[in-house]
Write a structure and sequence with these properties.
heterodimer, A: about 1000 residues, mainly beta, five-stranded mixed sheet, 51 strands, B: about 450 residues, mainly alpha, two-stranded antiparallel ribbon, about 10% strand
């Protein structure tokens, strides 16, 4: 450690530490304890996993398997002890602790269908949710994974938290997820939230791949998201911090919200084993569009492409129209059921000093692609063998291990070590925007059924390509808590997240599609190491200023270092049979290094008045290596109020409205520039002159020395209520957030001859909206219960200012734009203003469609409305549980680009070929062919999906005991089972741009697939 | 606590280097302010110019198609046999200003220009003996050629901006004539450079000839055929200044070859009625192969150009044949049709081609001349400029020069005779887009 660092640490932490040490001896001399048992009052059974809060020092313990809890080393005094547990009403009692006394305080909890109070984790540590003035959504991941069709981490978030949109880009196994919380905050920077796992900042790149599997170039197709490396089985809970008002203390990358993941922990008690086994099928039940081919057998140049217009122009004469899709014919379709299996075991337990949770999980999934039998037979006949990976080209195999160990190393100190390891191997097929996709070669082939069985490139050619990603990921965190006095607690977390990734793409010589010289043999082998190092130091001091007023002061400091090292190697022109770059006719190699560092501190002051009014103020300071040289540190303030109105004496007891809380918060957070955005620089480049190759430099980036982070300020107002004898809870939140100094990647005038773009802090944009979450138990009987959860949100997004003189930013096939006064990334096009079959020949001809001269706004490209309805029906005294989730998105459009592409340049859309096609469909086709306007292919993309359906059968205890088990259950579940939509394409929930920040299109993408799984859980 | 306490703490730690990062992939401006840096800028400018002219091998992205391919696509040399709509707009002559291919094409030409200008300045400032360095004139010439390409391909209104330290000096929109005149000025500067006029230096002679042909091409665009002929009078017919390519890395690959063998663009023949018979003429100057297959669009018959035989094939930027063709045009301009025919036939003899019949009048002579130019200079980035000159200088109707009628990917050919300026030029506060769309 450098001397400067030491001085700084001493300066910021030294004073507090010295004061703490001085108090230790006195406190230890008077050690007391508070402990007891928490039980279900109705049954007397001990309750595990109840959170017990010792007010004052604000210490939190969790009951063990016998329902016991224990606070050691409690200073003499009087404390309120509050017990919180899902499904039960909170209970509070007072512990009067004398010096050296062991106080026993038992609790019997009464059932409550819903509850608002729980423990949540904030930047400063754990605290009661009702003290936190922001809407924080908590997801009970442990229960969901056991009973719902969860195949990846993103499924856990989907449809379970208001304001959180999970957008799976397609149905290919292993592809990623785009996640937005309360809309998009940034024009040019990432809009993905930050992720922490067990307090450790983790890498969460939504598209972590250098594979060219999407047609938009390397690493920008539908690749995997790193969040899906996490094994859902290991996750206890997820908390979602939704906006800048709540995320201020997380610093300059938190304006998009924060997702905090807590993995499972051991609890004191005997070892508890949990085994599970899941098998299932992955199926594609989508209906693909039919290819229309106008035939003219006498005119080979137009046979298959004889459009109605060509016929009118005299180029050809349709003698028939063939209608066929190789994806809808079982003989030619490579879309077959895939197989999924997952097996795992975990064990947890421990004692008062040491707890542990250990797990192992194996997962294997074959996607929906399988080589058609006729091609398999043909290849076997030709070559005598066929590799398995060509038969099943889309597979995922993953092993996950986790070890979480907690130790009470001292009466005042504990440490928690959490270590997760994942090894995965995923083989992809091409996903989007390419003839090398299954959908591209089938839907947009242009060829009729009698050529190549309707395929542009055959599945055998496509599946011969190998695009494989192997990862080895380790996420480790070590957290130490030290409570030197009854009023001071400190925490230090060291985190390290490292991913070693190997992306291999291989086109075997002579076997793949004859596309861009790939058939000559190409192999790329790109290797990366991505590391995130985090240090988080925090201290909280609590004082009771008088009997009514409590004070909590928190300070903290964080350091983050993100580093990516990559090497890229490619060999072209490989000898037949070669599977290595060695010996390639042409080779190419390069390196990549990206590093950023961030340092921040915060101070937060909270005052609590009679445990029902909480007022908080905080400041956050950040400095970052990506800031321009003319900009120093930034400061973000926040303030919030939480008022538990129902605890006021005047409110009284009410079974109708048992809990009512109002909350309001204002806060600022940010988004840092890219690592080198502020710098002016050149990059090395190869050149050749006089037959000698050399290395030169080319201008790469203009830079901006004044570059600073964006500032997103959010005001959040809301209320929480628990009603009807705690059978209904409601959370409502209104938010408005404005991003100023928005970083705009402004196009540089190309006549400068410099870089394409330059970042400026120019823009301003606004999101405002409302969220509502209602949880209710509709039926609450002994033999039957029915829980319903409705959550939803609506928001508006508007670009207020793009910057003076900045032209609208155009992207996404040139169809989407950032334009002042409109939602970010909306669809624009020249409108079809009318069409008329003037000569009444039943055909809309080229001149019979009118199109406006100027592009106008058509609609949003991202949904601004979402809702989900989760239902859990418990029958037969809890032996059967039926769960469903309906998921709605709306308010947006999607570009049916595959259909317009089928019109031009491919000529196999119905609107061009079939004289019985509706006139509007013909007009849309003529408009895109002749006027190049996509207007007619922007379609409303709202949908309602039956996202999840599950039936869980819990075996009676006697049955379980016959297996020497403590519990036994069987779950049958399905995912993506039914869709209601007006969209005429295959699936409104796909994106050819995968996890791109804004760009969205339905173009040669694999739509969502169905999952059917059967799972057995056994507990010992 | 207050920012006065915490913020200085942050700064203190930052000052201790905790926020220092390692960025090995970048070269900072200070690193090129030396003789070695000037050498690096020179090689970089050579590379940028080759990229802007001939594209690169990154076929999957296709944003750096280059001048030869884009201008040839809009002219009658190539027809699109793949699918990107931005390239189709160019082939179809209906080009919108938000076309990303158009932007890349325009941007890379300016990058090549700016890089050459920067390298020339660096060689002069940091070079050991700038008065003996012909590369300064070479860089000025490449900047001049970049301006020629911009003038030949794009509408009037092109501006030339530059960086001065941290400041951007925006250029004013220029008419087509002003663009070519600015190129002439650059070639004159190159010709006047001491390093260009060294005796007994092959490199200096090469630069001198390069600048001479460049000046002639610019003058030809200005309608001064006589001046152009005078500029190339001493150019030997076998001279060639080339962009050099390699199989690896992809940036050095010849994209003209790649687009052909990649089934992306096909060789045209009589495109849109007015196009020349590049295939049916079976002329050895435009060698091609009938693949008997269709391109990646699944519909367009694929004919591969064989003029460039590999990713490492060089492309002629300025050559002696072009010098003779310029002289022939000067003869035509002077009414010497027999002289023009003789000059053209002398060139044809080099390829063993039959002599041309002497045209009967100036219109026929112009047809013959421009056809000869088209075949000799096929796929070198000349044809679009020539087609515009036929309209601008020879009074031809655009509908008689450019492809017209139905476009076989749907719709019909549009009215464009040049490329519009991409909408990104609006970020130059002086720019108003195209001043006009005239040829």
């Amino acid at each position: 450690m450098k001397a400067g660092m030491r001085r700084w640490l001493l300066r910021t932490g030294g004073g507090v530490t010295a004061l703490a040490l001085a108090s230790v001896s006195l406190a230890e001399a008077q050690q007391s304890s508070v402990g007891g048992v928490v039980t279900d009052e109705a049954t007397g059974q001990p309750l595990e996993a109840a959170r017990v809060l010792l007010n004052g020092p604000n210490r939190i313990e969790t009951t063990n398997t016998e329902g016991r809890y224990l606070f050691r080393n409690v200073a003499p005094g009087s404390y309120a002890v509050r017990v919180l547990r899902l499904g039960y009403r909170p209970a509070t009692d007072t512990a009067n602790v004398a010096p050296g006394e062991e106080v026993t305080l038992d609790f019997g909890l009464t059932g409550a269908p819903v509850q608002l109070d729980e423990i949540v984790t904030t930047a400063t540590g754990e605290q009661r949710k009702l003290e936190v003035a922001n809407a924080v959504s908590t997801i009970d991941a442990a229960r969901i994974t056991e009973e719902s069709p969860i195949t990846e981490f993103g499924n856990l978030l989907s449809g379970r938290a208001a304001g959180v949109q999970v957008q799976k880009s397609g149905g290919t196994t292993g592809t990623g997820t785009r996640i937005r919380i309360r809309g998009s905050n940034s024009v040019s920077l990432s809009n993905e939230p930050l992720y922490y796992i067990d307090g450790v900042r983790m890498e969460s790149n939504p598209t972590s791949s250098s594979l060219d599997i999407g047609g938009f170039g390397q690493g920008v197709g539908a690749g995997p998201s790193r969040i899906n490396d996490l094994n859902p089985e290991d996750i206890e809970s997820i908390e979602i911090v939704k906006g800048p008002a709540a995320a201020t203390l997380y610093g300059i990358q938190a304006s998009n919200g924060v997702v905090r993941i807590t993995t499972k922990r051991g609890r004191a008690g005997k070892a508890r084993w949990n085994l599970y086994s899941e098998v299932g099928a992955v199926t594609d039940h989508n209906t693909y569009p039919i290819n229309f081919n106008g035939r003219d057998a006498d005119n080979p140049d137009f046979d298959g492409f004889c459009t109605l217009q060509f016929e009118l122009d005299g180029f050809c004469a349709q003698d028939s129209v063939s209608q066929f899709s190789p994806l809808d014919d079982p003989f030619t379709s490579p879309l077959k059921a895939g197989f999924r299996q997952q097996y795992g075991a975990n064990v947890s337990g421990g004692n008062e000093l040491l707890t542990y949770y250990l797990s192992a999980d194996y997962e294997d999934e074959d996607g929906v692609y399988r080589l058609p039998k006729f091609e398999e037979d043909s290849i076997r006949a030709d070559r005598g063998f066929l590799p398995d990976n060509q038969i099943r080209p889309n597979t995922l195999e993953r092993v996950s291990l986790r070890a979480n160990v907690g130790a009470n190393v001292h009466a005042n100190a504990d440490i928690q070590a959490n270590v997760g390891y994942t090894s995965s191997d995923t083989r992809f097929v091409e996903n989007d925007n390419s003839f090398l996709t299954i959908t591209g070669s089938a839907e947009a082939s242009g060829v009729p059924f009698d050529f190549n069985r309707g395929w542009f490139f055959t599945p055998a050619e496509l599946f011969a390509e190998l695009a494989n990603q192997g990862t080895e990921r380790f996420i480790g965190g070590l957290t130490g808590n030290w409570r030197p006095t009854s009023w001071l607690s400190t925490r230090a977390t060291l985190g390290y997240d490292v991913t070693n990734r190997t992306d291999v793409q291989f086109f075997p010589t002579g076997q793949v599609a004859d596309y861009l010289q790939n058939r000559l043999g190409v192999r790329s082998d790109n290797r990366f190491q991505t590391t995130q190092t985090s240090v988080d130091l925090a201290a909280t001091a609590r004082f009771r200023l008088n009997p009514s007023l409590a004070s909590k002061t928190s300070v903290g400091a964080q350091f983050y270092r993100d580093l990516v090292n990559g090497t890229f190697a490619t060999g072209r022109i490989l000898p037949a049979g070669s599977e290595t770059i060695t010996g390639a006719g042409v080779t190419e190699a390069r390196e990549e290094t990206i590093e950023s560092r961030s340092l921040g501190t915060y101070v937060e002051q909270e005052f609590g008045f009679k445990e029902r009014l909480f007022v908080t103020g905080a400041l956050r300071f950040d400095d970052n290596s990506a800031f321009g040289r003319n900009f120093d540190a930034t400061v973000y303030p926040k303030a919030s109020v939480s008022w538990l109105l129902s605890d006021e004496p005047f409110f009284g007891e009410s079974s109708f409205l048992s809990t009512l809380r109002f909350r309001g918060a204002v806060g600022v957070s940010g988004q840092q520039p890219g690592t080198t955005d502020a710098l002016r620089y050149y990059t090395p480049v190869a050149g050749k002159r006089a037959n000698v190759a050399g290395t030169g430099v080319t201008f790469a980036n203009l830079g901006n020395p004044g570059l600073k982070p964006e500032r997103s300020r959010e005001i959040e107002l809301g209320f929480d209520a628990s009603m009807l004898n705690d059978r209904v809870s409601m959370e409502f939140t209104y938010f408005t957030k404005t991003t100023r100094d928005a970083l705009i990647e402004r196009n540089v005038s190309p006549d400068l001859g410099a870089s394409e773009s330059q970042f400026f802090n120019l823009g301003e944009l606004r999101n405002y909206g409302a969220e509502l979450a209602i949880n209710t138990r509709v039926i609450d009987g002994r033999s039957m219960a029915w829980d319903l959860s409705l959550s939803g949100s609506v928001y508006n997004n508007r670009l207020i200012e793009l910057g003076e003189g900045v032209e609208p930013i155009v992207f996404g096939f040139g169809l989407q734009r950032h334009v002042e006064g409109y939602p970010l990334g909306g669809y624009w096009a020249r409108p079809i203003t009318g069409f008329d079959d003037a000569n009444s020949n039943g055909i809309i001809e080229a001149g019979e469609v009118t199109v406006g001269d100027t592009a106008i706004f058509r609609g949003r490209a991202l949904p601004n409305k979402e809702a989900s309805l989760n239902s859990t029906l418990t029958l037969f005294g809890g032996t059967v549980r039926i769960g469903t989730q309906f998921d709605y998105r709306g308010g947006h459009y999607i570009d049916n680009a595959i259909e317009s592409f089928r019109c031009t340049p491919v000529f196999n859309c119905r609107g061009l070929i079939d004289r019985t096609a509706p006139l509007e469909e013909q007009a849309n086709a003529q408009a895109v062919v002749n006027e190049a306007t996509e207007w007619g292919y922007y379609e409303p993309a709202w949908f309602i999906k039956l996202r999840e359906l599950s039936v869980t059968l819990f075996a009676p205890d006697a049955w379980a005991r016959s297996f020497r088990a403590s519990r036994l259950s069987l779950t049958l579940a399905g995912r993506n089972l039914w869709t209601i939509t007006d969209y005429s394409g295959v699936d409104p929930e796909v994106n050819a741009f995968a996890q791109d920040n804004f760009a969205t299109s339905d173009f040669e993408s694999q739509p969502q697939v169905q999952y059917w799984t059967a799972r057995i859980n056994v507990g010992f | 606590m207050h920012r006065a306490i915490l913020s200085p703490s942050l700064l203190l730690v930052a000052a201790c280097g905790l926020l220092d990062t390692n960025q090995p992939d970048i070269v900072e401006p200070g690193d090129v302010g030396s003789a070695a840096g000037a050498e690096a800028l020179y090689v970089g400018a050579i590379s940028d110019f080759a990229l802007a002219h001939d594209g690169d091998g990154d076929l999957n992205i296709g944003v750096t198609d280059g001048h030869v391919l884009e201008s040839g696509l809009m002219a009658d040399e190539f027809v699109l046999s793949t699918t990107p709509p931005t390239q189709q707009e160019i082939d179809q002559r209906r080009i919108f200003t938000n076309n990303s291919t158009l932007f890349a094409y325009y941007h890379y030409l300016h990058r090549a220009r700016a890089a050459a200008e920067t390298a020339a300045e660096a060689l002069r400032e940091f070079g050991a003996a700038p008065d003996e360095d012909p590369r300064i004139g070479e860089m000025q010439s490449l900047a001049g050629f970049s301006r020629i390409y911009l003038g030949e391909a794009f509408c009037a209104g092109v501006a030339f901006s530059r960086l001065e330290g941290d400041e951007t000096v925006f250029g004013e929109p220029q008419t087509t004539a002003e663009i070519f005149q600015s190129a002439v000025n650059l070639f004159d500067a190159a010709l006047a450079e001491p390093g260009t006029n060294l005796v007994d230096s092959d490199a200096a002679l090469e630069t001198f000839i390069l600048a001479s042909i460049g000046k002639a091409r610019a003058l030809l665009n200005l309608g001064d055929a006589a001046g152009a002929a005078a500029a190339v009078a001493t150019v030997p017919t076998d001279f060639a200044y080339i962009t050099e390519h390699a199989d690896s890395p992809a940036r050095l690959q010849n994209a003209i070859y790649g687009y052909s063998v990649g089934f992306l663009w096909s060789l045209s023949d009589l495109e849109g009625d007015n196009g020349l018979p590049y295939r049916t003429a079976e002329d050895p100057r435009v060698p091609f192969e009938d693949t008997e297959d269709v391109g990646l669009d699944g519909t367009t018959p694929q004919f591969n150009l064989l003029k460039y035989e590999g990713f490492d094939s060089p492309v002629i930027i300025a050559g002696g044949v072009e010098a003779r063709l310029i002289e022939a045009e000067a003869q035509l301009a002077g009414g010497d049709i027999p002289g023009m025919t003789g000059t053209l036939n002398s060139l044809r003899a080099l390829e063993g081609l039959d002599d041309l019949d002497q045209p009967g009048n100036e219109d026929e002579a112009a047809d013959v001349l421009f056809s000869e130019r088209a075949f000799w200079l096929f796929a070198t980035g000349h044809r679009l400029g020539d087609m515009r000159r036929l309209i601008r200088q020879y009074g031809r109707d655009a509908e008689a020069v450019f492809p017209v009628g139905p476009y076989l990917k749907g719709g019909s050919y549009g009215p464009d005779v040049n490329m519009p300026l991409p909408q990104e030029v609006q970020n130059n506060p002086s720019s108003v887009g195209c001043l006009n769309r005239d040829a």
